[in-house]
């Protein structure tokens, strides 16, 4: 981290915490420069930092803004080759920040991250399909494989985008949950695929937007890899964090008579912020209506005599999202 020098400071101290409601802990003091490297951060853990200016008497005279950082369990921008990966099938090579697979086979071509397994985690990869818009052409992520060399037909889950823009989860050739159409053309542009696997809950994101939530209990942990089918493809910017926020609990809501306002409260998890979602049915679909840094939220746009259902998820600074809270509802604003 880096900061501007303070004329009032004799020295600086760096403070750190994990969650917005926590007290700060000093991790370095008596610093005289304008930078510091935190070598004690745990892989997959998000932190909040600030710097305090200390005068010659040892008193804090100023504190900086807060800065957040996510320490990824693994990240690869493919600028130094692909030595951390094993090509199980296909032809793979890294060049100038891109990991390319050039075989057009249906084996399928796959490359597995060496020696690392993940259970509850978030992973993303940026992918582009180098082929036609035939939906039989696809590329994406494979995760929770039992053995590193297993093909996706043997073990693990797939989250892939087809050349026609459709995304979905599957295992051993069978769909897990619904597919979703994105309207994107992954043969003409790079697309960011992200998976959040938390217990039996699997969430799939495309370019930062949640598109699929489903559940499956077949595999709870395993190896991670990149995969293509029937086409060549290019991958960039693989990021993995194994820190997933706990699920918010005890969500409840109320609305005063004559008000179009619904007030929500819940019990905090170890999240840095929360996403609030609403639906007109307990079975959904739920739509995001706002975010909160604390444990309360006011829905100012509830229609009179309409019943709503709400749920909340927790999000950390790496963007990993918890499982859904309990559903609160029906809650109706009324005269």
Automatic annotation (TrEMBL):
Residues 80-240 form the 3-keto-alpha-glucoside-1,2-lyase/3-keto-2-hydroxy-glucal hydratase domain. This is DUF1080 domain-containing protein. InterPro entries: AL/BT2_dom, FN3_sf, Ig-like_fold. Gene3D superfamilies: Exo-inulinase, domain 1, Immunoglobulins. GO terms for molecular function: hydrolase activity. SUPFAM superfamilies: Fibronectin type III (SSF49265).
């Amino acid at each position: 981290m880096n900061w501007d020098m303070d004329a009032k400071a004799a020295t600086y101290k760096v403070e750190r915490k994990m969650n917005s409601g926590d007290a700060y802990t000093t991790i370095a003091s008596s610093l005289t420069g304008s930078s510091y490297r935190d070598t004690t951060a745990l892989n997959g853990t998000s932190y909040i930092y600030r710097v305090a200016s200390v005068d010659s008497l040892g008193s804090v005279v100023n504190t900086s803004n807060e800065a957040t950082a996510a320490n990824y369990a693994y990240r690869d921008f493919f600028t130094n080759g692909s030595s951390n990966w094993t090509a199980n099938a296909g032809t793979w090579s890294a060049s100038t920040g891109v990991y390319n697979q050039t075989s057009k086979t249906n084996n399928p071509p796959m490359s597995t991250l060496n020696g690392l397994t993940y259970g509850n985690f978030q992973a993303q990869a940026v992918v582009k399909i180098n082929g036609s818009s035939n939906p039989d052409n696809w590329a994406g992520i494979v995760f929770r494989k039992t053995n590193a060399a297993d093909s996706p037909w043997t073990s693990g889950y797939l989250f892939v985008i087809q050349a026609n823009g459709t995304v979905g989860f599957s295992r051993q050739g069978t769909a897990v949950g619904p597919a979703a159409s994105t309207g994107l053309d992954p043969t003409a542009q790079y697309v960011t695929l992200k998976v959040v696997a938390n217990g039996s809950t699997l969430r799939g994101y495309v370019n930062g937007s949640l598109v699929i939530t489903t559940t499956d209990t077949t595999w709870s942990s395993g190896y991670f890899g990149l995969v293509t089918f029937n086409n060549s493809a290019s991958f960039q910017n693989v990021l993995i964090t194994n820190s997933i926020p706990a699920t918010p609990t005890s969500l409840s809501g109320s609305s005063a008579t004559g008000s179009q306002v619904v007030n929500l409260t819940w019990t905090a998890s170890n999240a840095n912020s929360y996403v609030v979602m609403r639906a007109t049915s307990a079975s959904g679909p739920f739509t995001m209506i706002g975010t909160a840094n604390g444990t309360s939220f006011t829905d100012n746009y509830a229609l009179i005599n309409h019943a709503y259902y709400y749920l909340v998820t927790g999000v950390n600074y790496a963007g990993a999202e918890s499982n859904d809270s309990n559903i609160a509802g029906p809650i109706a604003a009324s005269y």
